[in-house]
Amino acid sequence: MPAIAADHTVLVLYGDVPLITSDTLTPLIDQAQHGALGLLTATLNDPHGYGRIVRDAQNAVTRIVEQKDASEAERRITEVNTGMLAVNAACLQRWVSQLDNRNAQGEFYLTDIIALAVKEHVPVHTVQAAAIDEILGVNDRAQLADLERRYQRRERSA
């Protein structure tokens, strides 16, 4: 973070999510360049294992709760965090320095920056992934083979 200029936009991606497209990422970057935090979410029939997007009565994002830390009601939320976001570098630098590991896993959650943004009145605007394929990660050979097939189908129909 110290090498990133404060006025730049930071795009957070995962190296094991190969099918993400620029069409999906561009709106995230646009949100960040207009003063908001752009957060990529997806709605899943089975959200098991994913962090849930918690919204208030006005439908504004208030925080992300990880599965292990979620209440029963929060586990029923089907809108999930993909982990991908775009935000102003100065904000991200400030928020990362405030993270702690007081949670069920004893880990530092980058997702906690969402609540910090809300606390500072930085708008959190969500963008839904265009296709579920775009947010799927690769953790083993079976998942790699599945994503390779999905990629080939996508290329054939392009």
Characteristics:
158 residues; alpha+beta; Spore Coat Polysaccharide Biosynthesis Protein SpsA, Chain A; four-stranded mixed sheet; 30% helix
Report the uncertain regions.
none
Q: Note the overall shape.
A: globular
Total of helices: 5
Helix content: 25-40%
Strand content: 15-25%
Structural class: alpha+beta
Give the total of beta strands. 6
How many structurally independent domains?
Answer: 1
Cα radius of gyration in angstroms = 16 Å
Q: What is the second-level CATH architecture?
A: Alpha-Beta Complex
Question: Describe it for me?
Answer:
The chain has 158 residues and is α+β, with helices and mostly antiparallel strands. The protein has a single domain, classed as Spore Coat Polysaccharide Biosynthesis Protein SpsA, Chain A. 30% of the residues lie in helices and 22% in strands. It contains 5 helices and 6 strands, in the order βαβββαβααβα. Strand 3 and strand 4 form a beta hairpin. The longest helix has 17 residues. The relative contact order is 0.23.
Quick summary:
This protein has 158 residues and is of the alpha+beta class.
Which helices and strands, and how do they pair?
Elements: E1 9-12, H1 22-33, E2 37-43, E3 52-55, E4 61-65, H2 72-75, E5 79-88, H3 89-96, H4 113-119, E6 124-128, H5 141-157
Parallel strand pairs: 2-6
Antiparallel strand pairs: 1-5, 2-5, 3-4
